[in-house]
Amino acid sequence: MSHQVTVWRAAQLVGVARGVLQQQVRDGALVLSDGMVTTDALLRLYPGAQLEESGLLERVAQIRDEAFGRRVRERMLPSQEVLAQRLFAQSQELADVRKHLQSYHGLVIALQQRIRQESMQRHGDAAWQELEQQATRGLAQVLATEPVDLLEVMDDMLKVMTAQVTLRPSKHEFSVEGRSNLLQAGLQAGLKLNYGCGNGSCGMCKVRVISGEIAKTQHFDYPLSEAEKAQGYTLMCCHTAASSELVLELLEAGGPQDIPEQQIVAQVRAITELGPDTRLLHLQTPRSHRLRFLAGQSVQLGWTIPGQGDIRTVYPVASCPCDDRNLHFFIARDETDALARHLFAGDIQSGAAISVLGPWGEFVLADGNRSLVFAACNTGFAPVKSLIEHALALDSALPLSLFWLATRSDGHFLANQCRAWSEALDQFEYELVSDADVAAGDRGGDPRRQWTMGRRADRPLQVALREQQPDLARAPGGRTAVRLRDDARLRLRQPHLDPAGRR
Questions:
Q1: Which one, of 299, 287, 300, 54, lies nearest residue 158 by Cα?
Q2: Fewest CB within a 10 Å sphere: which of 89, 215, 367, 382?
Q3: Are 296 and 365 in contact, with CB atoms under 8 Å apart?
Q4: What is the C-alpha to C-alpha distance for residues 320 and 387, in angstroms, rounded to an integer?
Q5: Distance CA 180, CA 185 (A)
Q6: Which CATH architecture has domain 162-256?
């Protein structure tokens, strides 16, 4: 008997990204019924799907081998209380199924006996005899030989290991694994959730539970009124899903206008050399005061020079908003940038206090199901990296294209990252372009000289600088040529593209 599951769960069962199945639905290869997919349809599309491919057996084996060690308990499994609640819910569901099966079995037996009586009263009528034999064969086949639906078994196991959360009215979905709270799990899925402190003090992550059960993960100080408690309101940062399915009501951020300006004092966690003229600045915010931002946005970093005052510079955030405590910035050697100058001089060390003010900017992804094209130059890769990681967190199957121009010897300082994306993702392509004459053109070279980017002639790309738009010229073959400035953050401009590069 076929079993119905959500697209999110189906992706887990066959071991593919949810976006891949969503693309199959759009292509007509997979049909949904009320937003659900049958296991029979999954097996037809993925006939080789096995339990091992989902990674579930490996997880269970690891838990067994490590005898529920501390690391496994804390990272891979929910708390004992949450597991107990989910197992109880599964037991209730199993008991209901057994009860119904017993009732159906009794009904079939009663009908079989009635058919036999009618057949005897009609003195061996052939039609009634055939009906009796059909019922007998069908009952024997169901009871004795019907194979077990492995995908249904996997679904039951995953319901205990992970929980599915659906948000209203957006209908966004995400999973909760291990000991993650609802807020952490939602941010890791790339959702634009409202929150502030992240520790239960401000109440900005307040949501209403429509269906399902939750369990408290930590104490919170925000006072919920009795009316709010009665209506099912709670805080996402202090609760996790206690049932396999959970539906929450909340309003998500619609864009940069919904992200408030924040001021945080972060600590330098590490300074890593990415190249002779490029450094990775890793800042970590306090647990109680994390930075809420959207991928592609920038912040102002400030550092106090003892006895001299403060220096401040605006940099785009290079990390994904899904990790709001660990902020990454790509700093290029620049004598005109006071903060960069002191960083390269070694004046800023690990443990130093850096003020963070922001976020700002509208260079963010728009909602939609269209392909994404990104362009960057040197350290202008920072906001693009954040945007790509955010798109990947959304589990999208959309094609992603990256064009990265380097005007310095270490301009492609994270080329290995691009290769990793390309190897891991079926629909990610990139092109690394280097031309030292691009920088020379801005220093007195021929301004009419142009350089082209693009892999395919049938996919024109018009590029403009975010702060300053140079003249554009159409190159042969349908590609766009543009003169680029060093360290420029690029913004796609085309009649059918929004500023984030969606078609």
A1: 54
A2: 367
A3: yes
A4: 7
A5: 6
A6: Roll (3.10)
Cβ–Cβ under 8 Å, residues 460 and 454: yes
Are residues 405 and 453 in contact, defined by beta-carbon separation less than 8 angstroms? yes
pLDDT over 90 at 422, yes or no: no
Q: Could you state, in order of their start, the residue ranges of all structural domains in the chain?
A: 1-49, 162-256, 259-360, 372-492
Residue 214's SS3 state is strand
Neighbours of 167 (CB within 10 A): 21
Instruction: Give the CATH number of domain 372-492.
Output: 3.40.50
Give kind and range of the element (H or E) at residue 430. Answer: strand 428-434
Strand partners, 23: none
- 310-327: burial string, b at 16+ Cβ within 10 Å, e else: ebebebbbbbbbbebbbb
Q: Give how far Cα 339 sits from Cα of 191, 267, 378, Å.
A: 32, 15, 18
How many other CB atoms are there within 10 angstroms of residue 256's CB atom? 16
- d(CA 167, CA 164) in angstroms, rounded, equals 10
Distance CA 220, CA 234 (A): 10
Residue 153: Cβ within 10 Å count: 14
Please name the residue ranges forming H helices in 208-256: 226-230
Q: Which own/partner contact pairs does 130-138 have at CB distance under 8 Å and 24+ positions apart?
A: 135/108, 135/111, 136/112
Cα four-point dihedral sign 365, 368, 369, 370: negative
**Burial class of residue 431, CB neighbours in 10 A (0-12, 13-18, 19+):** middle
Side by side, the strands of the sheet bearing 472-474 are 451-452, 480-482, 472-474
* Structure confidence by residue, pLDDT tens digits, 346-363: 999 999 999 999 999 988
Work out the average pLDDT over 492-496: 32
- Angle in degrees, CA 458, 463, 469, rounded to 5: 150
Closest-CA residue to 357 (of 424, 422, 262, 219): 262
Helix (H, G, I), strand (E, B) or coil at 437: helix
Same CATH fold assignment for domains 162-256 and 372-492 = no
Residue 241, amino acid: A
Third-level CATH fold of 259-360: Elongation Factor Tu (Ef-tu); domain 3 (2.40.30)
Query: Token pair for residue 422?
Result: 């390309």
> What does the pLDDT read at residue 274?
94
pLDDT in tens, 429-479: 898 988 654 444 444 444 333 333 333 322 333 333 333 333 332 323 333
Question: Strand 400-406 vs strand 372-377: parallel, antiparallel, or unpaired?
Answer: parallel
